[in-house]
């Protein structure tokens, strides 16, 4: 298969590109290198020393990997370039990772909110528009997020994208329908994935585009089989307050003997998946495309749920660290249950990597190994999350904003 | 009240601005004049001779109207200008009409699709972001569309924005929830209003913005009490295939003795509202704002539903014209029922103008009066609607695209 991996230089895109190449597919990586630019902006960098794209591709060929090509392109800004790229490469499938993916980054300032909306919505809509314009028969696989669902539902496990509901008809009878799961995003970043989902539903219906949307949990882990083959192939490990996931920040804090900072009570439950399972899921999704005319196929791409404070305690126990509670910048319920259906991937052969199995390796082979590269001041998350947390907002409004809402 | 009318030079914005000014509010009009620019692009113009903004405002003062000011600003492109505007004018309310509002125009080409998404999503998100950044306590009233609902539901009247559903919990019990009505837009334009609705839900929840979304039907009628006071105050009357609503095209065709062209079987049922009722609805919405912390308040802004072929026959009967069936460019059900709840506005005092009362005046005082200005070649709608209608798409895919889907 000819596969274009959009955002193929990023944390998920790069190991996915390597995995697909290793399976024998012809892979072309498209990226505008914005993630590296944001490192510069934030004065942060990956704990692991990541090589340039050129060195990554050369390294892959030297270890016997199938050659991949790289095209530098900004999907949101260069629509003619995108159309020309598709016409030249005529991919069978496009895997779309090319979005700004940090919730805290998306909340830092009006400029960051606007960038995230314009970049993510622009990239996705340009891609959809270009697929219609070129008339290519492409399977589009998009990396979405579990965060479109919101957290905590009325005593039910979250289904894979679509929800069965009953509605009262005017004649008093009950009508059963299956609807796109009502969204409840917790940040501007997550909201852009809600917008994506609406765009996908429209283009699948109106233009019969074949689309799979992967509602992914929080990815943990750094290495895949392929990234371990050469130091130049190593993947990113972000631990800063914006791009570091909760688990990576704990690992980093543990590695350097810093207290593990938990937001609020740490009662938030989240969905997780190991990066090795992520690349397998992308493979499985590509091997099981929707038919032309189908609605968007949605998979929940996660394998385990964990409560944040349990994670912190687990990491602390393994590493002899301690846990510290700090105020939560997010506007969210302090505690939530989370049950998620993920049978589609399991039925298609996914064998989950469990947290208990992989955590020690992450601490020893990644966090401790590169600990001397860490900048500890980057670990705390400093983004404010709502208008009510801004300086100068009257207390009465702050109180309203802080009150819990159950939408 | 200090009210900013965004898009206040347009078909709905201008009469709404006049009406609010006439009520004694301080009105400032913001517009980038894009609608006039699109007239140039399409080589079309309003049947009624519309004056420049300057002449409109001068005319309004000369007939004793409260002076209004005009600020030329592109909301989607000039975020710093928008923030500066809000800080300078500190409006109590903002009425947001500033979006590309034609479904056929939004489908004309990839460029038109992308413009509509970028302009509408950009304008709405910039506005929301600016309201948070400035910290102003503004009531935002947005002109949405009935088209977010899609047409035809399972034997039930469309509620005002929110739908009661029952969901099966994991323990077998049934849980009642009220959700945002599942959207099913029929064009890129309508889809942008779906994106708007997701943006509003997020900002109301996260930042406690006070937002009212008016899900409007097709507006008909040209004059309001205020636009009749001076020829310089006259409103637009669009009859071209892109911006002319179905009713205006019928009126125009009737006035010039052209057959009334009905798409498909004309079995599509649509919701309508007279422009005098539209301006009253905006007034009522402004007088009944949501409280801080409320979810988005959604009103269905329509007064009657009509089947398109019934409309055509009604106009033909009044005008001695005839009806002609032509192929439908839209991907939609050929026939649909439509029942809509609109009790909120009725309970708040709206007295609907019925089609049967106003149609003759439209034919005589507008369509026939200005018929010599008409360009008959502009009446047909020529936008193709789906990928399957594009030249060069294989017939097998066209068949899939043409098949009816009930989402």
Quick summary:
By secondary structure, chain A is an alpha/beta fold. Chain A is built from 13 helices and 14 strands. In chain A, helix 6 (about 110-135) runs parallel beside helix 7 and helix 8 (about 245-255) crosses helix 12 (about 355-370).
How many individual helices of chain A?
Answer: 13
Spatial order of strands in the largest sheet of chain A: 3-2-1-4-5-8-12
What structural class should be given to the helix and strand makeup of chain A? alpha/beta
Radius of gyration from the alpha-carbon trace of chain A, in angstroms: 21 Å
Secondary-structure element series of chain A = EHEHHEHEHHEEEHEEHEEHEEHEHHH
Q: Biggest interface pair, residues each?
A: A-B, 73 and 72 residues
| Strand-residue proportion of chain A | 15-25%
Q: Helix amount of chain A, in percent?
A: 25-40%
Please give the largest β-sheet of chain A: 7 strands, parallel
Question: Could you outline the blueprint of secondary structure elements for this entry?
Answer:
Two copies of one chain form a homodimer.
Chain A: E1 2-6, H1 13-22, E2 26-31, H2 34-42, H3 53-62, E3 69-72, H4 79-89, E4 93-96, H5 103-106, H6 110-134, E5 139-145, E6 162-168, E7 174-180, H7 188-207, E8 210-216, E9 218-220, H8 246-255, E10 260-263, E11 269-274, H9 275-287, E12 297-301, E13 304-307, H10 308-319, E14 323-326, H11 343-347, H12 355-368, H13 395-402
Parallel strand pairs in A: 1-2, 1-4, 2-3, 4-5, 5-8, 8-12, 9-11, 10-14
Antiparallel strand pairs in A: 6-7, 11-13
Helix pairs in contact in A: 1-9, 4-6, 6-7, 8-10, 8-12
